[in-house]
Amino acid sequence: EKVEITKEQRALIKAILDAYNRHQIPQDVTKKLLQEQYSAEENFLLLTEVATSQVQVLVEFTKNIPGFLSLDREDQIALLKGSAVEAMFLRSAQVLSEKKPSGYTEVLEERIRKSGMSEEFMTPMFNFYKSIGELHMTQEEQALLTTITILTPDRPYVKSHEAVERLQETMLDVLRKLCVLQHPQEPQYFARLLGRLTELRTLHHYHVEMLTSWKTNDHKFTPLLCEIWDVQ
Ligand SMILES: CC(C)c1onc(-c2c(Cl)cccc2Cl)c1COc1ccc2cc(-c3cccc(C(=O)O)c3)sc2c1
After folding, report:
1. CA nearest ligand 1 atom 2, residue
2. Which one in 92, 154, 205, 226 has a CA-CA gap of 20 to 30 Å to 196?
3. Which residue, among 62, 64, 67, 92, has the nearest Cα to 77 in the 3D structure?
4. Cα–Cα distance, 51 to 111 (Å, whole number)
5. Ligand 1 atom closest to Cα of 93?
6. Are residues 78 and 156 in contact, defined by beta-carbon separation less than 8 angstroms?
7. ipTM over the 0.95 cut-off
8. Is 217 in a helix, a strand, or coil?
């Protein structure tokens, strides 16, 4: 049947895309990824700094998701804590799979591979990065997929499951229509995007071990990361 994006849905896409583009990690933070020397310690410190900045950006972006601030405040925190790692896998995946060589792609891959992380996580992580790259997502799809990840109702400690589910379903419906309209030659594209969300859950489980297995002896995280990841 004819897929049509309503006026309200177009406004929703615009609001989310504007917020997604408005909230980015400051250049002076990401630029360091290109400049600083390479060592396991330095790479870990840089990744920690960028991740911390990314969490701040994520909080600001989330506040601009239409309907998010109407949710129960404790649920807002539970959604942020529960989705931060997955949103950061999506963000780093978008950077690593950028078509235009932004220069970050090579250095970021190098720094992640040489940050003292156990090799066992490299394969699933870089398989994910590859699978995201193969999708060639548009900006709207990236912003909506991140929004849908944040609005996952079955995170720990979420009380108003239905309220979050209703919001997520609104976003899923918009993404489904966008995929049909933007990838007419690929009817399975929306299903492939949702498959990435499942892969993100698996990476999230790996990430818990990653944090503990980080081999640098005195690795420590920033207070914000400790809070959002319940570390130490
Ligand atoms: C604490 C730290 C050691 C850590 O622990 N686990 C992870 C992790 C790793 Cl390894 C992989 C996936 C997810 C996580 Cl969570 C990390 C690093 O997480 C991040 C998080 C976000 C970003 C955004 C970037 C980025 C670069 C250039 C440009 C831009 C841009 O947005 O322009 C963004 S790099 C980056 C690194």
Report:
1. 48
2. 226
3. 62
4. 13
5. 12
6. yes
7. yes
8. coil
Q: Which residues contact 216 (CB under 8 A, 6 or more apart)?
A: 40, 41, 44, 115, 116
| Amino acid occupying residue 127 | N
pTM of the model: 0.95
State the residue for tokens 């309907």.
67
CA angle 179, 129, 62 (to 5 degrees): 60
Instruction: Give, for 107, the enclosing helix (H) or strand (E).
Output: helix 104-113
Distance (Å, whole) CA 135 – CA 132: 5
What are the pocket residues of ligand 1 if the criterion is a CB atom closer than 6 Å to any ligand atom? 24-25, 30, 33, 44, 47-48, 50-51, 54, 85, 88-89, 91-92, 95, 104, 108, 112, 221, 225
Q: What is the rounded CA–CA span in Å between residue 168 and residue 12?
A: 12
